[in-house]
Amino acid sequence: MTTPAIEVRSPARSAAPRWTLGILLGTALLLLPFAVSSFWIRIATEVLLWAGLAQSWNIIGGYTGYLSFGHGAFFGLGAYITGIGMTVLGWSFPAGLVVSGVLAAALAAAIGYPTLRLRGAYFAIATWAFGEMLRQVATVLDITGGAFGMRLPALLNLPFFYYVTLGTSALVYVTTYLLLERSPFGYKLLAIREHEEAAEMVGVNTVAVKINAFALSAFFPGVLGGIYAYWLTYIHPDSVLGGIITDLMVVMVFLGGMGTFWGPLLGAFLVQLVSRSLWLVWGESTLYLVIIGAAICIVVLFMPGGIVGLLEGRRTPLLAPHAAWRWWRERMRW
Amino acid sequence: MELFLQTLIDGGLIGGLIIVVGVGFSLCFGVMHIVDFAVGEWVMLGAYAAYWLVRYLRQDPMVYLPLIFALFFAAGWLVYPLIYRAVSGRRHHPALMGLVFTFGLSTLIKGGALSAWGYHVRSVSTWLSGQSVTLGVTTFPALRLAGFVFGVLATVLFMVFLYGTRLGVSIRATAQDRETAALLGVDVRRVGALVYGTYAGLTGMTGVLIGALFSIHAAMGAKYVIFAFFVVVLAGMGYVPGVIVAGLLLGLIQSFVGVYISGRYTLLALFLLMYLSLLVAPRGILRRGL
Fold it and tell me: Does any CB of chain B come closer than 8 Å to the CB of residue A309?
C-alpha cells in the first residue's frame, strides 16, 4: 500500500497582497485584447484554453488521485457535439457549448461508474483505451466526417474567442476554488486520494464522490472543446481527439504541481511558452515532443511536487556545484 | 474455407511474435509494478537499429539479432535506475509515477526519432522476404513463419530461464512479493535491472522482425503500445503464461476483423475488448493476474 505523503501547508500569510495581485491579474486579462496584436491574442487564448483544460484534469488526477489518460476524449466529444450541433442540427453556439458540456459530464458519469472501480494503473489504462476508442469511433463514423474531419461555420473574431475562453477557464478556477479548496467535497477527494479504504470507513460515499469529481472534470473540457472547434472552424479526429491533448493536460499539471490550485495555470503557461517559442524559432517541428518528454521525466524524478511544490518546500539552493552533485548522487543509485 | 484458414494462419503467426513483447512487458509489471508506455519505442528503436546496421554493414538483419539484444539489454540496464527512482521514495502513488515516467520517456524517444529521422518510411529486407511455404491450400509467408518461430523460441527460452534457474526463481519470487523476496536475500534492485534489461532486449529483437515484416517509421511505436497493453490486460497483469493465450487471440482478432469486416475497425475492436475486459475481468480472462 502506498504511504501517504505528509502535506504541510505553508503558514497563512496576509491575504491583502494576494487579493491585490488577483485583481491586477484579472484587470490585465480583461484589457489584454485592447493592448496587443491579434497574434498575441491568439497565443493568450491558447494559454487560457490549456490552463482551463489542465485544471479540469487536476480535479480528477491531482485532487482525487485517479490518473485519467483519456481525458482528451471529453474535449474531442465537445468539439464534435458543437460541430454537429451547429452544422447539422442548426443550434446556436452557446446552446452547442452547454449541450457539449452536459453530454461530456453525462458520458463521464456513465463510464465512470464501472471504470472508477479500477485502481491505479488499471484506471489509467482503461481511460486510455476509452479515449483511443472514441477517436476510432470518430474516424469510422459518417456524421463526424471520418478521417477527413468536419468544417464549422467560420467566425473571424479573435477577441470574441478570447473572452469566451477566458470566461470558461475562469469558471473552472472559481469552481475548483469553491468546491475543492473551500468545501467538504474537496476534503473528501483528498481523503480518497490519500487512503480510499479509510475514507470509506469514516463515511465518505466514495463511489458517488468519485463519479461527481469525474463528471465535473469532464464538463469543462467538453465546453472548451466546443469553443476550440468553433475557433478553428475545422476539426478532425487527430486534432481534437489525438493523444497529445491528454498528454499536454497531464504534463501541465505535473509540471505545475499535482493537486495544487495554481499548479495547472503555471504549467499551462510554461508549456505553451516553450512550445510557442520553439514554434517561432524552428517553425512546425517535432522537437517540442522531446522537450515535453524530458520535462515529464525530470518532474517525476526530481520534483514530484511540481513547481508549486518546489517553491513551497525548498530551503537550500542548488546553485553550489558540490551541493548539486551531492543532491544528484543521493537520488541516483543502481 | 481457404480464406478462413489463411486468416487463421496469418493471425496466429503475428500473434506469436507479439507474445515476446507481452512476456517481457507483463514481467515488468509483475516485478516492478511498472506499466511501460515506452514499449512501442523499444520496438521502433529495434527496427531502426536493424535498418542502420544493414545500411552500413550490409548483412542480413537476422545476423544482428544477438547484437541488438545486447545493445538493448544495456540500454534497459542504464534506464532502469531512473525508473526505480520514479517508483520509489516518498510520493503519492509510486506505481502511477512509474507509468507517468515511462510515458514521458516514450514521448522523449518518439520526439527524438521524429526529429532525427522525420516521417520517411523505411524498410529492410531479409533473405526470407518474398519467399513462402505452401501447405495444401494455404501459404505461410517465410518471414512471418520465421517471426513466429522466433517468438516461440524466445518465449520458451525465457520460460525455461524463469522456471528452471535460480535467478529465474528469484525473479518470480520478487514478482510474487517484493518485500518477502528482499527479506529472503534477493537483491530486488538487481533483479529489476535484469528484468528490465531482458525485456528491452527481447522487445528490441522483436522490433527487428517487425521492421522486416512491415515498414519502419518513427511513429510506429504507438501501435505496439496498444498491442502490448491489450495482451497484458487480457492475460491478467503480471501473469506470464496468460500472455501466450492473449497474444494469439490478438493476432486472430486483428486478422479476422481486418479480413471479414474492415481494416478500419481493427483498432476499435481491440480498444473495445480491452476496455470491456478491464471492466468485467480486471485480473484477465483467465483470472490469474495481479
Answer: no
ipTM of the complex: 0.86
Helix (H, G, I), strand (E, B) or coil at A235: strand
Number of Cβ pairs closer than 8 Å across A and B?
Answer: 152
Q: Does B263 touch chain A (CB under 8 A)?
A: no
A69 contacts on B by Cβ (under 8 Å): 103
How far apart, in whole angstroms, are the C-alpha atoms of residue A102 and residue A81? 11
Three-state helix/strand/coil letters over chain B: CHHHHHHHHHHHHHHHHHHHHHHHHHHHHHHHCCCCCCHHHHHHHHHHHHHHHHHHHCCCHHHHHHHHHHHHHHHHHHHHHHHHHHHCCCCCCHHHHHHHHHHHHHHHHHHHHHHHHCCCCECCCCCCCCCEEEECCEEEEHHHHHHHHHHHHHHHHHHHHHHHCHHHHHHHHHHHCHHHHHHCCCCHHHHHHHHHHHHHHHHHHHHHHHHHHCCECCCCHHHHHHHHHHHHHHHCCCCHHHHHHHHHHHHHHHHHHHHHHCHHHHHHHHHHHHHHHHHHCCCCCCCCCC
d(C-alpha B265, C-alpha A139), whole Å: 9
pLDDT tens digits along B49-75: 999 998 888 888 888 889 999 999 999
Cα–Cα dist A151/B89, whole Å: 49
Handedness of CA A104, A105, A110, A111 (dihedral sign): positive
**Residue B181, all three cell numbers:** 523476496
- Measured CA to CA, the distance from residue A329 to residue A98 in angstroms comes to 53
Contact predicate B248/B19, CB 8 Å = yes
Set of cell numbers at residue A261:
490550485
Least CB-CB distance to A129: which of B95, B96, B275? B275
CA B196 – CA A281 distance, rounded (Å): 38
Q: A282 — contact with chain B (CB < 8 Å)?
A: no
The pLDDT tens digits of the residues spanning B204-219 come to 999 998 988 888 988 8
